[in-house]
Write a structure and sequence with these properties.
This protein is α/β, with parallel strands linked by helices. An 8-stranded mixed beta sheet has the order 12-11-8-13-16-17-19-20, sandwiched between helices. Strands 2-1-3-4-5 form a 5-stranded parallel beta sheet, with helices on both faces. It has a two-stranded antiparallel sheet with strand order 6-7.
Length: about 425
């Protein structure tokens, strides 16, 4: 791998049956012009040979921490920093545990500890090992340390069991690698030659909670942070779109290049959305209050020794449904979000039909998931074509991937 390789990856191959799929991953990466240098762990050598890895990477394969020749050619510090990204595939339970602990007891662990580059792992292990609290604790630690994770997928496993634990498919890992290497692409944005597939397109996004007034000082609302909607607005701007963000009250900076229309109630949000149509793509991430107080008091309601007041609620307009079922002027792509606490995909499928959307992004907002207010999201794309499960990603990555997808779909339908 010469220094002139535009993008390069240090690939750590752990000891798991999935290591054979890593050979396919190397082939895909090389095909995309990405340079690959590999470290094979001792356990990894039980599953694939250094010779096949060397043949596919076209590079020497590293495995021994104390090999003098290796140190003479390239020290482990240099090895861990020469690449733009470090990828661990398969990331075994053992490798994840050692990473989470910060151990440096072989070349792979040492390189992972010494690197100053982003790290992406593709876990692969038996389902029980994956679900074990120790592995989940290590996963949480690694996520908190900023490690990116792709997969594992759910399915039949080599060990005969079924469930999550299968390494993500090489093609999916290659896409995640492409995205992780995106900062290099981002430089192109500054130099102006980045693809702008949404140039000349208008993207309308709702975000945040709504506030439904009880009286001049009190309101009904919810915990929506607006982060996913704001991240989508930034991603749409990056693709060259004209972006209007109709937002309930949140404490987030307006994404540079987007126009923000502040609203409070669902009725105001509905009116602002109607004013902003037509649009090519409409994305409804707002957590719109389902009900408003039927008779908002003009003056502050006083206790005055009386019995507590009874609030009569009235249903708010369904903004997504209103726009998705427009007879004329319907955006070409209408996307909704479904925040659920149980039967996530089933509820999303029902919403897809009931609301007439083209796509519903379903996510689990049970309090233990930390989605509300958090920076990460695990989503499922639900459309007529079926269900696509995405790995746990940052909200920024969900936004980038989703906008890329929508830009592609729009280009196909135009
Ligand atoms: N939505 C909307 N207007 C509303 C309610 C919801 O535009 N009055 C949009 C949301 O922005 C989201 C989608 O509809 O994209 C689903 O919202 P959700 O609250 O999950 O669905 P509800 O219709 O409220 O269904 P339920 O309360 O039964 O879960």
């Amino acid at each position: 791998m010469t220094k002139t390789s535009a993008r390069s990856v240090l690939l750590v191959i752990g000891g798991g049956i999935a290591a054979y799929k890593t050979l396919e991953l190397i082939r895909l990466l090389k095909g995309r012009g990405i340079g690959v240098r590999a470290i094979l762990t001792r356990a990894g050598e039980q599953f694939v040979t250094p010779l096949s890895v060397a043949a596919l990477t076209g590079e020497k394969v590293y495995s021994d921490l104390f090999s003098l020749t290796d140190e003479a050619e390239m020290g482990h510090i240099e090895l861990s920093r020469a690449a733009d990204l470090v990828v661990v595939a398969p990331a075994t339970a053992d490798l994840m545990a050692r990473m989470a602990q910060g151990l440096a007891n072989d070349l792979a662990a040492t390189a992972l500890l010494a690197t100053d580059k982003p790290v992406l792992i593709a876990p692969a292990m038996n389902v029980r090992m994956w679900l074990h609290p120790a592995t989940q604790r290590n996963l949480a630690r690694l996520l908190a340390d900023g490690v990116r994770v792709i997969g594992p997928d759910e399915g039949d496993m080599a060990c005969g069991e079924f469930g999550p634990g299968r390494m993500a498919e090489p093609a999916a890992i290659a896409v995640a690698i492409d995205e992780a290497l995106a900062p290099a692409e981002g430089m192109k944005l500054l130099t102006g030659d980045a693809p702008r597939p949404l140039r000349g397109r208008k993207v309308l996004i709702t975000a945040g909670p709504t506030r439904e007034a009880i009286d001049p000082v009190r309101y009904i609302s919810n915990h929506s942070s607006g982060k996913q909607g704001y991240a989508l607005a930034a991603a749409a701007v990056a693709l060259g779109a004209e972006v209007v963000l109709v937002s309930g009250p949140v404490s987030l900076p307006i994404p540079p290049g987007a126009q923000m229309v502040p609203v409070e109630s669902a009725a105001q949000m509905m009116a602002a959305v109607s004013r902003e149509l037509p649009a090519d793509i409409a994305i409804f991430t707002a957590a719109v209050a389902d009900w408003r107080v039927a008779q908002r008091a003009d003056e502050k309601i006083k206790k005055g020794g009386k019995a507590p007041p009874t609030l009569t609620l009235a249903e708010n307009p369904d903004i997504l449904k209103t726009v998705a079922t427009l007879k004329s002027g319907r955006p070409k792509l209408v996307v909704g979000f479904a925040a659920e606490t149980e039967r996530v995909v089933a509820h999303a499928q029902e919403k897809l039909t009931r609301k007439g959307a083209d796509l519903i992004i379903a996510n689990d907002v049970s309090p233990e998931g930390g989605v509300f207010g958090g920076d990460r999201n695990t989503v499922h794309l639900v459309s007529k074509a079926g269900v696509e499960d995405w790995p746990n990603l940052s909200k920024a990555e969900v936004a980038r991937r989703l906008m890329d997808r929508l830009a592609g779909t729009l280009a196909e339908t135009a």
